[in-house]
Amino acid sequence: MTSLPVQHLGRLLALAMFLVALLAGGGDARADTAAAQALFDAAKQLMAEGKYADACPKLEESQRLDPGIGTQFNLAACYEQLGRTASAWSMFLEVAGAAKAAGQLEREKVARQRAAALQPRLIRLTITAPADSPADLQVKRDGALVGRAQWGTPVPVDPGKHTVEASAAGRAPFARSVELTRAGASETLAVPPLAAGAPARDAAPPASGAPAPARAAAPPAGALAPSHAAAPPASGAPFAPVAPVAKGAPALPAAPLTKRRSKGMMVTGIVLTSLGTVAVLGGGLVIASSCSGDGCGYDDSSSDPFSDNVDYEESDTEGAGVGLVIGGLVLAGVGIPLAIIGGRKVPVQPEKQAAAAPAPPPELVIGPRYAGLRWSM
Fold first, then answer.
1. CA quadruple 10, 16, 22, 24: dihedral sign
2. How far apart are CA 125 and CA 266, in angstroms?
3. Where do the structural domains in the chain lie, given as residue ranges?
4. Which has more confidence, 66 or 239?
5. How far apart (Å, rounded) are the C-alpha atoms in residues 245 and 194?
6. 146-155, 332-341, 350-359: lowest mean pLDDT where?
7. How many angstroms separate the CA atoms of 156 and 125, rounded?
8. What is 123-190's CATH topology?
């Protein structure tokens, strides 16, 4: 029995590792979904008890593990109860956009109504800077970079203390904090021209009395220079002659003639493996999307479209995805052996080599009584 070529074993191992990683990734996704649901349920219970400061972090983690429209809406409602009006307002608008894209018109309507109710209470902060500010001037609000397009524009912010910082090369930095608590207020914080600052030095000078760095000693007169510093030979210097190859040197043996065992089998295996891989990936995406967002099986009987951490999805979508994955694994399991067996190179039989070898050219033969052509069939 002959062993499989090393390159085929490598391909088989890589494909097996891919399938294992795909299956393991599916397990991790299911674990994240379960954890997200548990966090969502705990946060809903805390919100019912009025413990919004404890509920919001759980909703944030649930949204990170398994993003969904329902979780995002409840997180916006939690921010609203904590007084974070700007965060709640922007998140309600995000929920409305996502619900509209998903065709969930009732959820879109509720989210837009909640955002509209918050808009009169928003606190807006305007940051300005001099027109002749340096090109490299950077402005930050609470540690986040504020782009030049935002300068002079009222931006909604949450109530509380906000710190504005400004910096530029060769200028003294600027920082100022402002406390904003009144609902509907609009404040402006102007960044003044930055004063010139002392330029930073690249390196401190050496202390007085410090020994100067030692220099490489020059070679004594008459001493030979190192081999790496030797002068190159003159361009006209002759090269050493190359020894001629002996006429009677034996020729290298010709490589044996080989061919693939079955090109049709190899191509069929590659096609089946490719189709199986596409089916596995497509099935994984279908399974992931069937319960994407907040879950599956939305209950239309509920009066609150955000009462559960669920989205509108068809119940049989996940089953179709599982079928695709299983079918893809079967196709790949059949295609891989076919591609390996058909693609193996086998030596050509001697009689077939002789048949495949080109015929010698005709030879002119001249004799004392005849002349003609001679060739081999």
1. negative
2. 67
3. 6-24+259-348, 123-190
4. 66
5. 80
6. 350-359
7. 6
8. Immunoglobulin-like (2.60.40)
Extended strands (E) in 168-217 = 174-180, 186-190
Q: For residue 15, which of 281, 327, 352 has the smallest C-alpha distance?
A: 281
- Rounded CA separation 32/288 (Å): 12
**This prediction's pTM:** 0.51
Positive or negative: CA dihedral 98, 100, 104, 107: positive
What is the reported pLDDT for 80?
96
Q: Which residue has the tokens 């894209």?
A: 101
Residue 272's pLDDT band, with cuts at 50, 70 and 90, is: confident
Contact in structure between 171 and 134 (CB atoms under 8 Å) = yes
CB 43 within 8 A of CB 78: yes
- CA nearest 289: which of 318, 266, 268? 318
Query: Mean per-residue pLDDT for 76-83?
Result: 96
74: nearest Cα among 57, 59, 53:
59
pLDDT at position 203, please? 41
Q: What is the separation of C-alpha 282 from the centre of its chain, rounded to a whole number of angstroms?
A: 19
CA distance 70 to 56: 14
Q: What is the pLDDT of residues 289-315, one digit of tens each?
A: 665 544 454 444 455 667 666 554 444
